[in-house]
């Protein structure tokens, strides 16, 4: 990936479309637009132009918007061509661009990578942009907007400034201890703030579980004995036939899943094989996979068609709630007493489905009154924050200003790696590979 090249790509959605956006970025942008469209439009002003080949053949008419450096998304000269979204039109323009010297097709995420390298965005903002593009629920959108807009970066930058001040005070005392205008005791001025900073990072890391639920979804496993109605419930909640349903016990042999949006959150439902002892090889493998899914669940719906079916001996994670659901209550032989289950439902009649959805909503995080979602949303964020927290704890525990200063430097570097200010070159290919070409 040569950042000296001028790059181009289709930046809008799949073709055909009403409008297609072709983006160009690099030092040759102005010259290329001049060859294709004639007079260069005023900066950041949409102008209708006829787009031609280098031989003067008309390709299309469309809007041309020119963004001179550094006031552009990438920080370079940049242009967007808004043309008709037919496949032939777009391919003809891309083929024409390919014929120019110093131009090449952009790689995945290369526009965003140039924005990062030119200081237009930091890594947290870049990752937020990637999440915004892939967001499918309201909460995923809110989390991504907070990151892409710099809200989370501002928090980390504020912490970094406090660390920089603390390190400067220590260095001043070490280097100029004999000067009258240098404070005689650093501890009174900075160590109380370092303790406060450590507590703030601890509280921030504790909210990583919320971000995981927002990004990856609340994992709900439907479990129970064979023929308890697990697959029927999955189909009822998904409102379509996902799983095969029969009266034969052991029909489900594998873990099936479906993604739902509930109260703005992503919810992942897993239908599992009925738990029982069996010698049948395929069913036994399905039961093993069911137990593996149960071990990673955030919530378990334990189903039974009779009051004696709620016996539960499977190991589950700490603090994982289990909701006991009585099924097939429409059958005449069903004799349930109040209190024998947490919920009573029939997928055949629909009774109890609304109550179940309300129960599931109650398990989602309560974000009422929260205006900011500046929370660590990726494992690398959490890892760096934990490194910073550990270094701060060591700085408070050791003696000697020189050793304490080194621990504060390590904490500062850990925070810098989150935003990409320190030693992240090995991460860049991984991060930008998540982007589509043209972004």
Automatic annotation (TrEMBL):
It is an enzyme of class 3 (hydrolase). Its cofactor is K(+). (6S)-5-formyl-5,6,7,8-tetrahydrofolate binds at residues 23, 80, 120, 439. Its main location: cytoplasm. Binds 1 potassium ion per subunit. SUPFAM superfamilies: P-loop containing nucleoside triphosphate hydrolases (SSF52540), TrmE connector domain (SSF116878). Its EC number is 3.6.-.-. Pfam families: MMR_HSR1, MnmE_helical, TrmE_N. Signal peptide: none annotated. K(+) binds at residues 227, 246, 248, 251. It is found in: Cytoplasm. GO terms for cellular component: cytoplasm. One of its GO terms (molecular function) is GTP binding. Exhibits a very high intrinsic GTPase hydrolysis rate. Involved in the addition of a carboxymethylaminomethyl (cmnm) group at the wobble position (U34) of certain tRNAs, forming tRNA-cmnm(5)s(2)U34. Homodimer. Heterotetramer of two MnmE and two MnmG subunits. InterPro entries: G_TrmE, GTP-bd, GTP-bd_TrmE_N, GTPase_MnmE, MnmE_dom2, MnmE_helical, P-loop_NTPase, Small_GTP-bd. Belongs to the TRAFAC class TrmE-Era-EngA-EngB-Septin-like GTPase superfamily. TrmE GTPase family. It comes from the Bacteria. HAMAP family: GTPase_MnmE (MF_00379). GO terms for biological process: tRNA methylation; tRNA wobble uridine modification. Mg(2+) binds at residues 231, 252. This is tRNA modification GTPase MnmE. Keywords: Cytoplasm, GTP-binding, Hydrolase, Magnesium, Metal-binding, Nucleotide-binding, Potassium, tRNA processing. GTP binds at residues 227-232, 246-252, 271-274. Residues 217-365 form the TrmE-type G domain.
């Amino acid at each position: 990936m040569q950042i000296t090249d001028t790059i181009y790509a289709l930046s809008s959605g799949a073709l055909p479309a009403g409008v297609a956006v072709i983006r160009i970025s690099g030092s040759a942008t102005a010259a290329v637009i001049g060859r294709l469209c004639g007079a260069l439009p005023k900066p950041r002003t949409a102008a209708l132009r006829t787009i031609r080949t280098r031989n003067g053949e008309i390709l299309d008419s469309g809007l041309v918007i020119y963004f001179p450096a550094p006031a552009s998304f990438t920080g370079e000269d940049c242009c967007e061509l808004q043309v008709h979204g037919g496949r032939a039109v777009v391919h003809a323009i891309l083929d024409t661009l390919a014929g120019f010297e110093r131009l090449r097709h952009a790689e995945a995420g290369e526009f965003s990578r140039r924005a990062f390298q030119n200081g237009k965005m930091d890594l947290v903002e870049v990752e937020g942009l990637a999440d915004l593009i892939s967001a499918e629920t309201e909460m995923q959108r809110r989390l991504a907007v907070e990151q892409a807009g710099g809200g989370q970066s501002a928090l980390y930058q504020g912490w970094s400034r406090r660390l920089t001040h603390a390190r400067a005070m220590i260095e001043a005392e070490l280097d100029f201890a004999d000067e009258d205008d240098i404070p005689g005791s650093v501890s009174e001025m900075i160590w109380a703030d370092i303790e406060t900073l450590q507590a703030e990072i601890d509280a921030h890391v504790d909210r990583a579980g919320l971000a995981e639920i927002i990004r990856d979804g609340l994992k709900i496993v439907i479990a129970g004995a064979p023929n308890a109605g697990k697959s029927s419930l999955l189909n009822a909640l998904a409102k379509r036939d996902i799983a095969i349903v029969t009266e034969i016990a052991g029909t489900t042999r594998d873990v099936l899943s479906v993604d739902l949006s509930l109260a703005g959150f992503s919810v992942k439902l897993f239908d599992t094989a009925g738990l029982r002892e069996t010698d049948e090889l395929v069913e036994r493998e399905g039961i093993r996979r069911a137990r593996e899914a149960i071990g990673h669940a955030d919530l378990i719906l334990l189903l039974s068609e009779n009051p004696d079916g709620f016996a539960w001996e499977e190991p589950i994670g700490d603090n994982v709630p289990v909701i006991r659901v009585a099924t097939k209550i429409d059958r005449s032989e069903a004799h349930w007493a109040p209190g024998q289950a947490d919920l009573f439902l029939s997928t055949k009649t629909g009774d109890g489905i609304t109550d179940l959805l309300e129960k599931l909503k109650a398990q989602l995080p309560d974000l009422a009154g929260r205006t900011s979602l500046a929370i660590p949303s990726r494992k690398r964020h959490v890892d760096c924050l934990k490194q910073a927290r550990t270094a701060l704890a060591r700085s408070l525990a050791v003696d000697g200003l020189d050793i304490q200063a080194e621990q504060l430097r390590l904490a500062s570097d850990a925070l810098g790696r989150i935003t990409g200010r320190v030693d992240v070159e090995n991460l860049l290919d991984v991060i930008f590979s998540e982007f589509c070409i043209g972004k």
